[in-house]
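Q: I have four molecules that I believe assemble together. Could you output C-alpha cells for the complex as a whole instead of separate predictions?
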Amino acid sequence: MLRFLTAGESHGQALIGQIESFPAGLKISIDKINRQLTRRQGGFGRGGRMKIEHDRARILSGLRQGITLGSPIAIIIENRDWSNWKKLMDPIRPVSSRLNARQKRLANDTTRPRPGHADLSGAVKYDTRDLRNVLERASARETAARVACGAIAGQLLEYFDIRMVSHVLSIGRARMKRKKIAFDEIVSKADRSEVRCVDPAVSAEMKAEIKAARKNGDTLGGVFEVRISNLPIGLGSMAQWFTRLDGALAAAMMSIQSVKGVEIGDGFASAAKKGSAVHDALYYKPSGSVRSRGFYRRTNRAGGIEGGMTNGSELIIRAACKPIATLMKPLETVDVINKSAARAITERSDVCVVPAAAVVGEAMMAMVMASAFTDKFGNDSLADIEAAFEAYLKREF
Amino acid sequence: MLRFLTAGESHGQALIGQIESFPAGLKISIDKINRQLTRRQGGFGRGGRMKIEHDRARILSGLRQGITLGSPIAIIIENRDWSNWKKLMDPIRPVSSRLNARQKRLANDTTRPRPGHADLSGAVKYDTRDLRNVLERASARETAARVACGAIAGQLLEYFDIRMVSHVLSIGRARMKRKKIAFDEIVSKADRSEVRCVDPAVSAEMKAEIKAARKNGDTLGGVFEVRISNLPIGLGSMAQWFTRLDGALAAAMMSIQSVKGVEIGDGFASAAKKGSAVHDALYYKPSGSVRSRGFYRRTNRAGGIEGGMTNGSELIIRAACKPIATLMKPLETVDVINKSAARAITERSDVCVVPAAAVVGEAMMAMVMASAFTDKFGNDSLADIEAAFEAYLKREF
Amino acid sequence: MLRFLTAGESHGQALIGQIESFPAGLKISIDKINRQLTRRQGGFGRGGRMKIEHDRARILSGLRQGITLGSPIAIIIENRDWSNWKKLMDPIRPVSSRLNARQKRLANDTTRPRPGHADLSGAVKYDTRDLRNVLERASARETAARVACGAIAGQLLEYFDIRMVSHVLSIGRARMKRKKIAFDEIVSKADRSEVRCVDPAVSAEMKAEIKAARKNGDTLGGVFEVRISNLPIGLGSMAQWFTRLDGALAAAMMSIQSVKGVEIGDGFASAAKKGSAVHDALYYKPSGSVRSRGFYRRTNRAGGIEGGMTNGSELIIRAACKPIATLMKPLETVDVINKSAARAITERSDVCVVPAAAVVGEAMMAMVMASAFTDKFGNDSLADIEAAFEAYLKREF
Amino acid sequence: MLRFLTAGESHGQALIGQIESFPAGLKISIDKINRQLTRRQGGFGRGGRMKIEHDRARILSGLRQGITLGSPIAIIIENRDWSNWKKLMDPIRPVSSRLNARQKRLANDTTRPRPGHADLSGAVKYDTRDLRNVLERASARETAARVACGAIAGQLLEYFDIRMVSHVLSIGRARMKRKKIAFDEIVSKADRSEVRCVDPAVSAEMKAEIKAARKNGDTLGGVFEVRISNLPIGLGSMAQWFTRLDGALAAAMMSIQSVKGVEIGDGFASAAKKGSAVHDALYYKPSGSVRSRGFYRRTNRAGGIEGGMTNGSELIIRAACKPIATLMKPLETVDVINKSAARAITERSDVCVVPAAAVVGEAMMAMVMASAFTDKFGNDSLADIEAAFEAYLKREF
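A: Yes, here they are, computed for all four components at once.
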C-alpha cells in the first residue's frame, strides 16, 4: 500500500520523508516539490525562522533521472541552521560546554511546559524532564517532510488529471461569509493572498486580526478547506469501518499539529438541516467523455463522499486549527523539575499558521488520495495503472 | 495490537464482531454487552425494525467461563428476522422463485440509488446493478457488531476505572445552549431522555423536531458528544502522524455511517479564539492518590488531547451526523438499469438516529482507547497490565 | 488488502474464518470448500476425533446467491461435538458441577504441559494455570478455518487458471527418493494415496511407519510440498524487506502448527551447489498465447521466486513438520500447580498429520497468493481484475 | 509497533534505515553500529567493492546526546563511491553524455537479466527495460541499512541481557559435522574465522571451496545459524496465525536476498524422527535468580519456540543461502530489448557472502525480537519497559 512516514527533529540535522509502494514510471519535478515547500513557509503571520530556512528537498532514493523506480522514495530536507543547533542537538555527543549565550538559554529553557503543546504529555510518556526531547519531534516543523511527500503524491494525481486546491476560510474572527466558492476561483486567487483567502476584503480583515494578535503577544487559529476535483467514483470502501475513506481523510487532517476539528461537505451544518435539504439528488448525462458523462449531482453537500467512498463530486474537507500554543505572553504553567508555578517557555514566534496549515492539508489529502487511487488501480507501474483506470472508466454502467 | 472488525449484511443471517489481541483474564458480563445493544436500538425516532430485533450477543470464542482467554473474541448477533429474508439473501442459493408480495417488491426494488447513501458509489465500485448487494453491508445495522465489541472494550477500561458517557447536543435545530455540562450530569440524565439529551426542555424540543420531520416524510441529524474520564497521561504518540491519538479518534468517529464532522475539545470554536483564551494553563497538586495528584488544568478546551496524546483531562469528542439518507418522500434519482429519472428506494424508516449514533460513538471510542491503553501497558494478561499501569502511575514525575 | 483471520477454540462452539477485501463477483462453490475440509480431516494416521467431526462450512456473510459481494466473508464451522463439551467450555457460565466421568477427567487434566506444545509458554504468557485455556486455541484444529478460507481464495486463483497441488514427500524415515515429479502426476495421484504420496511403494512404507509409531504410543512428522502453476511474473516485490513474496510464503507456512522448516525451490540443497548449477538460465519463446509465450526457463531450481517476486515458473515450497506433540506414552513434564515431576497430558490421539498439514499448506499458499494477486490486479470486482490482468499480460515486453 | 524499513539504491547516494516506535531512554553506541557494518563487509569471498566502501552510519534523527528520544530513528549510510556513480544514477538529471569508458559500459550493460536475480521479474513488474532500475534496489547492498537498524535493536536487547550470535555451518560442500556447538564457543570463535565458522579445519575447507569457485568464475552459498539466549518465555502468540513468532522469524530470514530455506531448532531433521525423540521434556528448578529459576529443558530440539512463542530456551534458527546470482562466467539469458540469446550481465564480483549474510541474519533477528519484546513490555520508555519486564519475571508461576 502506498503510504508515507517522516523522521527528524525540528532543529535536528534534517527532516526525512519516505514514501512506500509508489508506482514506477512517473516523471517527478523537483521544482514542484520545492514550490510546495515554499508555499508551506509562506503566509502572513509567520515568525523569523521562515526566513532562515528556505526549505529545499533533495531526493535520496527511489528516482533515477527524474523517473520513479517503484522502490522507496526517500527525501531529505536539510536544516540550514544546523550549525547553530549542533551543540544542543547532536545525536551522539553530549551537550557541549562551550555554548554561546543564546544556546545556554535554549539549553536551560526546557522545563516549563507550554499549555496546548505536547510538552507535558510527551515528557511523562517518554520519561524525560528535558522538554526539548519532546518538543523537537512534536513541532509542526515536521510538516515540511509531509509537504515534500505530498508534492510527489500530488504529481501522481495530477498525471490522472486529479486537481487539488486549498484556501483559508477564517482566521480568528475574520471569516468568509460567502458560501459558494468555485474551484477555479480558489485556483486563481488563493495563492495571491498573503493569508490564502480568495476574498481581498476578508484577507485584509485577517491580516488586521493577525497584527492585533501579534501586538498582544497572542496567537490565532482559523479554518481552511481542501478540495479535490475529477476523482473517479468508488475510492475507499464501505466494507469495513477502517476502509472507509472519510475515516482515513479525517485521521490525516486531524493529525496535523494544530487541527481540532474536521468536516466533510456540509459537515456540522448538515446536522441542523432536514434530510431533504442535505442529500444530493442524482442525475444522468448519457454522453461526453468517459470522465464527464454518467451520473452527476447538481449540489454537493456530501462533499464528494457517500458510504465512505468517493461519489464523483468534488471532495471538500475543512479543518479547524486552534491558535498555536507558543505565546509571547506565555500562560501559567508548572516547572517539571521543581514543580513551582512558572511561565511557559517561548520556543518560537509564529502568530498564525493557518495559511501554511492549508498547504499541509493539501499534502495530507494528496497522500490519502494517492493511496486510495493506487489501492484501486494498482501501484506497480504507471502503464498498468493507466490501463486499469481506463478499463474502469469504460466499464459500462 | 488490540483491534476489531465486523462482518455481516443488514438482513443476512447474522452480524459478526471479532476482537484481536484482547488481554486474558478479564471477567466479561454478557448482560453489559446486551445492555449496550439495547441502548443502540433505542431512541425516539427509530422505525419499526427496532421492535423486531432485540439484538442479543452470543460469544463464540475467546472466553471461557466468563473470562477472556487472550485468543480472538468472536461475537455473533443473529438476525431474528432471518426467516423472512432467507429467500432474498441466501448466501448460496439463487433468489427463490416463491416469494411473497413483500419479498417480490424488495427483490425488484433495488435499482434506484438513494442520494446520501453508498448505493451508487458501491454499485459502480463493485460492479453490480442490484443495489442490495451494496446497501446490505453499507447499512448502519452493522454498528450493532461495533457496539458489541465496544462493550467488551469498555469493560476493560472500566476495570481500570476509566469511564465513558455520551449525550446528544442537538437534533435538527433543537440544541443545548448551555456549555458547561458535568460528566456526572450526563451519567445521571442522558439515558433517562428518549433522545439522550440531559436537558428535559431541550429533549422535548428535539422530540417535537422529530415528530415534525416524520410527518413530512423527512429525516434529521444532530450532534452527539462522547466523554472519557480518568485516562492516564500519554496514550497515543506525537512520534509519527499516524500514531497521534486524535487522528485515530477522528477516523473512528468519521467511520460511523452518518457522521460528517468530528471535533475534539473546543474544536471549530477554538479556531475563532485567541491562543490565550484557548490553551489550558497548568497547575500542580503535590498530594493525593496516584491518579489524582500531579499536573492538572482548571479548564479543558483541549478536550483531553495535546500533541496527539492524552493529557490527563477528560477526553471530549463531538460528531455531527447528517440526517439519514432514506426518505419516505424520496429524492430524485436515476435508475441504474435504464438510466431514467426515478424516485429513490425507501429501504427503512428511521427518522433520526442520533441518540443511537451516540451509543455507537461510545463503542468506537472504547475500542480506540482500549487499543491505545493496551498498546502502552501490554495486552497479554490483566495481571501484567495492572503491574505496568501501576508502575507507570508511580514513576515519579 | 486481501487477508484473513480466524477465531475459535478447538472444543468451542465453532471456528470462524473471516476474509477481508475479497473481490466482488466471484461465484463460490460451497461444495469445493467442504471438499477441502474433508481432505483436511483425512489421511492415514488420524485419531478418532476426525470421525466425529465431518466439518461443514456455513457462509455467514459476504456472499449472496453464491456470488461474492466485496464485503467481509465470514465462515462458521460448527463443532459437532459441542453438546459434550459445553459444560467444560461454556464461554460464559462456570464449569458445571454436573460433569460425567470423562468430563471430570478432562476438567482436572490440565496442569501437566506437553513438551512440544504451546501449553507452558501460553500459560506463562497469559497467566493461567489451567492449560486448557491455552491449548484450546493453540490446537491445530484451528486450521479447519484456515482451510475454509483458503478454499475460497483458491477459487479466485482457479478463476484465473492458477492451479495448486500438494503432496507428501516423507513421513518419518519413509521418503520419496525420486526428484522429478510433474505437477500433473501430483494432481492425479496424491489424493488417491491415504498418505497423499504419489508413489504407491513409498505410500506403503509411510503407512508402515505410522503403524509402528502408533503401536509404540509415538508420533511422526514429515515433509510436504505445495506447488502453484501458471502464475504471472511479478507478484511480490523486491522494494522492501517485508514486501518480498518469499518472506510472506515462509511466514504462512511456518505459522502452521507443527512446521519447523520451510524451503523454496532447491532450498537447503542449493546451499551446497555452485551458482552455475543453481540458477536457471533464461530462454524466450516469441509466439503462443499471452500466458505461454515470452521468457521461460528449462530448469526450476529457484522454485518460481527470484528477487522476492514470482518469475513465471511453478512456485514450489516445502515444509518440514515435526511429529505431533501429544504422545500416548507421554514425556516427562512438571505440574504447573505443585511443580512436581509428572507425565504430560494426552489430549488427543493423531499419530501423524502430515497429509492433512499439506492440505493446510495449500490453504495458506492460496491465501498468500490471492493476496499478492489482488494486490497487483485490484480487489474490487472480478471484471476490473480481469481487465487489469489482461492488460498486464498483453503489455509488450 | 517497533518496526523498520529501508530506502536507497545500491549505487545511489545513500542508504537510509528508519526505525519506528523505538523506546526512549536507551544510550546508543554509534561504534557498535559501525562495528556491525564492518562485520557485514567482511568475510573471505567478498569482491573489490567492500574495500571501497567502509560503511559508516550517521544518525539523522531519533537520538540526542546519544540517547533515544522515542521519535523515529533515521540512519544514513552514504555511498563513498557516489561521485563515480552520480552521472549514471542521478535521481533527477538524465544520464550525462559525458561518461567515461567504464560508465559507458555500465550504462549500456543493463539489458541481459541475470538468472537467479530480480532482474527479469522486476523489469516486467515495473515496466522497464533498463535492468539497472531494478537491480539497484534488489541488490543485497540494501542489507547495510538492515544491519545498522539491527545494531540499534540489538543494543536494546543487550540492555536486557539478551545476547545474539551467528556462525556459518556450511559453504558449498564444506560443512560442520559436529552437532553440539555451545553459545559461548560461537561468541569466542566465529568472528576469528574469515568465514565465521567456529572450527578452524572446516574454515580452511570453506576457504578452499571459495578459492576453487573463484577460479572457475563460479559462486557458492551455504548455511548460517543465528542464536539468541536469555529470552523470556512468552514472546509471540499462538492466538492468530500471523502473531506466531516463528512465522515472523521465518519471514525475516527468508527476506534476506539469497536465502531459500529457513529452519528452527532441529527443523527438517525433526521431520524424520519420532515424537519421543523430538520434544523436549520439562523440568523445574525452584531457586535461583528470576531469570534462571523455574521451568527448563535439558534438550533444545525445538530451538526455543513452541506454539509460536518463545519457551525460554535458546532461540536457534538456520538459513540456507543459494550461491549469489552474478557469475563471472555468466549463464545463458535473453536480451530484454532484442530478445536474442545472450550472456547475463556481470554486475559485481563476490564469490560467497554467507559469512556476511549471517551478520544480516543477526540484524533481522534483532529487529524481530526487539519488536516482540517491546510488544509485550511496552515501547515508550526504558524505565517503563524495565518495570513491566521485572514484574513479569517476578509474577509467581
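A: One point stands out. Chain B has a mean pLDDT of 95.
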